[in-house]
Structures are given as structure tokens and as C-alpha cells.
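--- STAGE predict ---
source: upstream dedup step, 1 unique chain passed
mode: sequence only
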Amino acid sequence: MDIPRLPSQEPPVTNERKFAGDARAFHAAAAVLDACCTPDKAHPRGTTNTVYYDTPDLRAWAEKENGDGRKRKIRARWYGRTEELSGNVPVFLEIKYRVGAARRKERAMSFAPAADLASAPLDDRFWLDLFARAAGRLGAPVGPAWAPTCLIVYDRLRWDDPRGGGRVSLDRDIRAPRWNPARFPWGSSVELRETVCEFKNPAGDPPAWAEEMVRAGLRLRSFSKYGECMQRLSAGTP
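--- STAGE serialize ---
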């Protein structure tokens, strides 16, 4: 199957920053965004599923933990509650580069059976073959050392920010229900107790509603779903 390289819906380079706080702040944060932004017309809400790939020495995780200025994430992503999907499902294979707050994302689309997405263990060859079909088209082939480490799932609301000229999302119920047993034989499912608001705009400046978000219980800071889940998996804590 020929896998198209997809044009991004965002500028080639965008700036992404985050507010994060306790899960109990979700409804107050959503109220701020309802008042200041407009719901995304195409996909105002949904479930995001992401399988993150990493090397045997966990290079991508180390880049995050060490605060490296340059980072790379490799992932396979699909949308919707997996248990409700059927047939062949669109899967987006992504390589995401970051330099400070600036990011660039290359993306290609493939299709995979919903049954495999729902049940294939993360040490199954299925996940390597899925990405191998697209990696060359992304301009940065991924070697066989890059294998799945964990699946992260969360529920997301989306808005457009008319004043800041960017996109905003609010995430909750962040969990890692599956992991690679070859990497984490002692692993257990992870649930994070955070609300995370991501905003992307050309300049990376704090949005006009930043103070309202702080009053809602979130603060501007670095937060990585992958990094937080990997900390728990490596320690064997839920």
C-alpha cells in the first residue's frame, strides 16, 4: 500500500507550551476556554491513542529527562475509543522534532485492523511493520532498534484561539494501559491525575487567558505525558 505523506494542518514550525495541574481543575479550565476560545469545528472532542517508540537505551525518554534542547519523538496515533472501532482504522505515523518550544512534525498515514490496535502486545512484530511502511516516506527512516514502549490514551477537548491565532487542547483521564513486556516485565497500568492544556501559536507567547487559567488551577510549566508514564513504568508504580 502506498502511504501518503500528509500536509500538516499547522505551520511547518510551531511553538507549543503547556499548562498543567490537578485533575480536579478540568472543569474550571474548560470553562475558561469555552469563554475565551471557539470549539474546533472538525473535532471538538475525542479520544487519542498513541504508541510511543524508543530505543533499547530509552533515548527519547532520556532526552526529556535530561532537559535536552533538541528532542525527537516517534509515535503511532489513532483516534476514537479503540473498543468501539472496527474494520481498518487510519493510523498516523509521526516523527516530532523539538528545539526548545519550537516543534516540527512529519506525518504519514496508514491503515491497521482495529482488532490489532486493540489487542496486539507491544512486543508484537505488528507495531514494527506498521511504522516501517511509512518511516522512509517521512524523510527519517527509523531503524529496528526503535520499538514500542507504551500506549498512552487520553480524552481531549479542542478549541481555536481567535486572539492568539493558535490551537488549544485540554486533556484528562491520561493513562498507559499497555506497555512493552520486553522492556518492562514488571510493568503495571498507569493513570495520571493531571489536567493538561496545550496551546500552539506562532510566537509561543502566553495566551490572553493565561491568568484565568492559573486561577482555574493550572500553571504554565513543562509536562510530558510520555515522560510521566515512563517514570511510573520504570518504577513499577501505577
